[in-house]
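ZP: hey, is the glycyl-adenosine-5'-phosphate complex queued? I don't see it on the tracker
AM: it wasn't, my bad. submitting now with these inputs:
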Amino acid sequence: MAQEDIFKKLVAHCKEYGYVFQSSEIYDGLGAVYDYGQMGVELKNNIKKYWWDSMVKLHENVVGLDSAIFMHPTIWKASGHVDAFNDPLIDNKDSKKRYRADVLIEDQLAKYEEKMNKEVKKAAKRFGESFDEKQFRETNPRVLANQEKWNNLHTRFSDALNDNDLAELKKIIEDEGIVCPISGSRNWTDVRQFNLMFSTEMGSTAEGASKIFLRPETAQGIFVNYLNVQKTGRMKIPFGIAQIGKAFRNEIVARQFIFRMREFEQMEMQFFVRPGTELDWFEKWKTTRMKWHRALGFGDDNYRFHEHEKLAHYANAAVDVEYKFPFGFKEVEGIHSRTDFDLSQHEEYSGKKIRYYDPELGESYVPFVVETSIGVDRMFLQVVSASYCEDQLEKDTRVVLKLPPVLAPVKLAVMPLVKKDGLPEKAREIIDDLKFDFNCQYDEKDSIGKRYRRQDAIGTPFCVTVDHQTNEDNTVTIRYRDTMQQERVAIADLGKIIGEAVSYKGLFGRL
Ligand code: GAP
């Protein structure tokens, strides 16, 4: 099945089983804003716990913070967001649709890549085992022609971004013959910058109110609390501050479900280091973060690093962790070496000294910062896309979310075989015993087969069935979601079996 079709099914599945709903749906929805349902909120909380504990519990020198969304407006002037947090936009005059110029060009680059990959795939099929992909890529005229087009476009694009050359971005779009997907025309306006921050007013009267911004990243809340945390926590450099919270961006091109939203959540960690050591720490955090992703077992080849074409105004090194979504490799997390830019700017704008006295060096300095920044929602999309499966069985197909058990919203479903003979009471007893450790669901409706399918669809790793034998010997059948195998176990052993499979400790062991 085409990847696009799978993605459509995944979106429908997320709605049908209470993972993600369109915001304000009964009013026809609000663009690029989503709500998490009864299953979604559990999965989201589990993802956040995985991140939080891996940062704060596993690193002695990383502590947490929960700063407010509203902050002093000067913060956004100091951080550069008022002047430079822009997207280059272009409108198609015929369809009146608005696009991000950089995204149109990135899509064009992806088209060249796709063409090359198609050639490689075809040849691999033709030549079978003897196929040498490297040699083919270096010699096949069609691949070489597309590679040259890719290289030229890539260089022009990077230069235009680095020079902030909006006229050149438009020229690239024209030269490449990029058309509007809606009207099919090349009738484009000039490219212009558009600031992504939402603003609102704080204060009770129009005259007394001041304009404030909804934060577009959580990081600034960490920077402006650097001194508070360092002093009260008696933190020694190197140390980190981690935070999870909402961020808001007026995204113009909002698409691919929860991939790009206007209200979303970030998990960010700022790691404060001695100047000159930041690039070593940047490499260390790259390795640590990649391990964190891969530990979930979605396949090492589905991840890659992507170097930035253009460094943000605050960075001296930057890389994205990309995951292979059904719509291609896309950014899930950014890792940036942000230099001393933010703290120095806040020193200047606030007039307060933001320094660290380094007892080993006997001097004070503004610390440098390495940041890891991941979107909760994008991570959620990664997890559900990697887990969604349509298993072909003998007679039919089963849809199953093969979520890592530790992240699954419901860990076990307990089901009486029939609604009589004391079996429901026994099932309830099991739940009452296990519910303090695991999220359990009780289900007595429909046939056992239908109940299994319902649990497969929401990703429950264990189904426990209570039958007449249970009343005699206190054993139950446990059915494993991925293999569908069943075995008879003692009720007394359930806690241990399930506990081992869903423990964060097991996951952390892979880091
Ligand atoms: N503090 C640095 C920063 O915010 P970013 O690359 O703009 O860097 C970091 O964002 C992460 O936040 C991204 O890798 C992505 O996972 C998530 N993110 C950014 N914009 C988003 C959006 N509009 N919708 C969902 N997630 C988003």
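AM: back. The two ends are 34 Å apart (CA to CA).
ZP: great, adding it to the tracker
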